[in-house]
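Fill-in record for Glycosyltransferase family 9 protein.
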Amino acid sequence: MSTPHVPIRHGIYRILVCRPNHRLGNTLLLTPLITELQTLYPGAEIDIVSEGDIAHDVFKEWFNVKQVFCLPRRGFKHPLAFLRMLSRIRRTRYDLVVDPNVGSGFARTLTRLSRGRYKLGFSDTPTKALTHAAPRELAGRHMALRPIHLLRWAFGAAASYRYPPLAIHLNEEERTEGRNVVAALAAAQRAKGENGLRIGIFGNATGAKRYTTDWWADFMATLCEAHPTASIIEMIPAHGQSMLREKWPGYYSSDIRRMAAVLAGLDLFITADCGVMHLGAAAGVTTIGLFRVTAMAVYAPYGGHNAGVNTGDCSGGETARHVLGMIATTLGYRRCG
């Protein structure tokens, strides 16, 4: 039986977060929770259960994170590897186990199987898997905020203070290398002027979230007409092919930290709705995400001046004009040329 009226404030030194998901975006959307845990329990050590290998790269530079348990993808198809990892997780008795998901049976199973003094998650009905079950209505819409609402409910913290941003914690060496790459790629366009914006474009996404090359050509023509001195850098997708017909210098890396370092060296990042969109937000570059099928209220690039644009059936040029208005007003960049 849950005990929701007892705040979890003291005696928390070992924390386990159960977020078994292999997607880059969902892993990055977990980072505000880890920041919040470090704020509320600064003396605690945090372990994270994820899936695949991406979480190792995301949490590489986090001071309070000790272990990232990366379960094999589709773990039930690899029972021996899954059971070995589960055995490693169960060796530690945690003071707090957090299931930040809404409706994930796999995460709830891992929470139930782990050894913890307090177990926290969302549930509208009493469950033996949790000692503290928060009402699902507290979760809210945006994926980055749901775990924060959960933790603040359990801690008894005020909901009015600032929400932590997405973060990947690039070190100074990574940032320097990223700035150098951006400078080198921008130098190839220096004839346009040295004071223009450095704008990154990522044109790839999965399934119906992807825009055609013709759509992007229309978008880019309108954008470049308004900002003729801008240096455009295409962020090349994992498949290694340009989505912009190779008209601008591109950067490719299979290493997400290197990709984040280059994104951090930009002034602005415009991208289709995808995991790399959240990587831009985590890297600290102002990010505009383009949406047409997924819920923008749930997945829009989070924090700072980041924003989502619902493109609907708009053409690339119409969407670009809307983005230009955001650049001029919300982001403070004036029209050039």
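KEY FINDING: The chain is about 35% helix and 20% strand.
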